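Notebook entry, structure prediction.
Reason for the run: the old model in the group folder had no record of what sequence produced it. Starting over properly, with the input documented here first.
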Amino acid sequence: MDTDMDTDCDDAAAFAVLHALADRDEAHILATMVSSSYPWSVPCVSAINRYYGRPDLPIGVVKGPSAPIDRGSRYARQVAEEFPHGFADREAPDAVEVYRQILAEQPDQSVVIVTIGYLTNLSNLIRSGPDRYCPRPGTELVTKKVGHYVCMGSRYPADHDPRVWGNFKPDPPAVVHVAAEWPTPITFTGGGEFANALATGARLSTETPEGSPVRRIYELFFKGTAQNRHSADQIATMVAVRGTGHPWKLTTEGHNHIFPNGTHEWRDVPDDPRHRYISALAPGVDADDVAREIENLMVRPPDAGGNRNN
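New structure, fully documented this time:
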């Protein structure tokens, strides 16, 4: 999982979903990366991991000349100050180093990466050279170890709004680079009306304890009781764990054309066999049922399944 964990609250909800799926043995979490240079994003991620009983999950953070993406946060500092986390400020290793170490240790084609933030870390990863963990350059390492990449961003079939918001426009060169050079299948998942139709979050204030950092994040974001918010990052997480089949409608023909400013549009030609997107439910699927399933995972008590698979 690669997150910005700064501007929106659905990143935290996606972590709740991921940990719940791991408790159910549907996922094995390898690491949680941070693509934002906001000083409190790393401690906030660590606090969430600790709450769900996985305090030792590796965390890497974006570093280097392409890293200064700091958009502030309504919640990250408060959560880091109120919950135990084990990190001081942005103290964490370079995400590229963590990626390379973990990927080198995994079986071939076994890893799924999901980004619910900026693509800076992945761009840096495929630019990386051989190191002590692996003699392969980044693109070869990814080709060998990653089976699927799920990218939350942006709105489909197009987003031509030049204002800097979302996951693509804060670091457009990284998105252009990853879309063109990432060597494995990429499933882009959309936000906008699609994610709003599956809004979740209001149940956090009534069905999770006050000691939940995810509940706290929603309450800070809304400056009071948790309210429903789009489920963009939760959708990406569900696709990453459970795949691109039911209940999603998958578009496979065409490619995601990224403009230099991070806006984009889906073009039918030429076809890029790596690119596909999900921005709708399959025919006949009830949106309320899908939203309910997502929110059930969000409010699920930590360790309800009795598993710990860091």
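Summary: The chain has twelve helices and eleven strands.
The old model has been moved to the deprecated folder.
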